[in-house]
Amino acid sequence: MIAADRIDASFVARPRRDIAAVEVDGEMVLAVPFDEHYDTHWLDRVAAVVWSCFDGAATLGEIAADLSEATGADAAIVASDVVELARTLGRGGLFDGVEPDRPTPVVLPLPESITPGEPLPEFTATTGDGARVTSATLRGRRYVLVNWSERCGHCRKIAPELAESQPALARAGVDLVLVAAGNVDENQRLLEGAGLTCMLLFADDVAAFRNIGTPCAYLVDPGGRVESGLALGSLQVPALVRELGA
């Protein structure tokens, strides 16, 4: 463990795998579980871009250099801003190997979710061709139901990961079902570009995901009951899919 204030340009930022990340209009909310609550961190559009570069492989100096080249911004200023953001997030406990310092956390209760064993609330959706599908239609299969949107940067980010895990998921007898908002064609293009061949449904309101951002997911059993806790964000949703296909 190192102190956040010791983070410098040589630091490699490895985000904790249990962070829930949700995009909101290009900005981002990061939720870090501590005890029975989440500490939340709101990132503006610029900080959200930098956060997406923290891949656990590149140093902060390398990230800053790439961002400076891409934007034309002054290299020294970009490097200073990237290090300072990393120190701030490190104090919040967002990185592996960094000692958290949480003097004044913003605490948000865990989002309301369905308890495993309870029935998935009924919903009605349509396919891209306009065919009607209900939750009852899906009975008899075990599936991961994902709250999805092509406008969500995190959905776009994890689409290739889900595609990569899909063959193993199918071998395990689990389907992947995305229930999406937004434009039908854009959603379909996103899936095609990522190589995802799963069921894509469209619905304006799904009670299971009401007031919860994208992406998030539940595992549903063949009887229509929720089998897993809520997987929330771009780390937890792919992790759930990988675990089921292992």
Helix run count = 6
* Binned strand content: 15-25%
Write down the overall mean pLDDT: 88
Poorly predicted runs? none
CATH class descriptor of the largest domain? Alpha Beta
The number of domains: 2
Query: So, CATH architecture of the largest domain?
Result: 3-Layer(aba) Sandwich
Number of strands: 13
Q: Choose one word for the global shape.
A: globular
Structural class: alpha/beta
What is the assigned CATH homologous superfamily of the largest domain? Answer: Glutaredoxin
Distance between the termini: 31 Å
| Biggest sheet: strand arrangement | 11-10-9-12-13
CATH topology value of the largest domain: Glutaredoxin
Main sheet: strands, sense, barrel: 5 strands, mixed
What series of H and E elements makes up the topology?
Answer: EEEEHHHEEEEEHEHEEEH
Task: Provide a descriptive summary of the structure in words.
This protein is of the alpha/beta class and 246 residues long. The protein folds into two domains: 2-108, Coenzyme PQQ synthesis protein D (PqqD) (Arc Repressor Mutant, subunit A); 111-245, 3-Layer(aba) Sandwich (Glutaredoxin), CATH 3.40.30. It has six helices and 13 strands. The protein has a five-stranded mixed beta sheet with strand order 11-10-9-12-13, covered by helices on one side. A four-stranded antiparallel beta sheet has the order 2-3-4-6. A hairpin with a 5-residue loop joins strand 7 and strand 8 (132-134). Helix 2 packs across helix 3 (75-91) and helix 4 (153-171) runs parallel beside helix 6 (233-245).
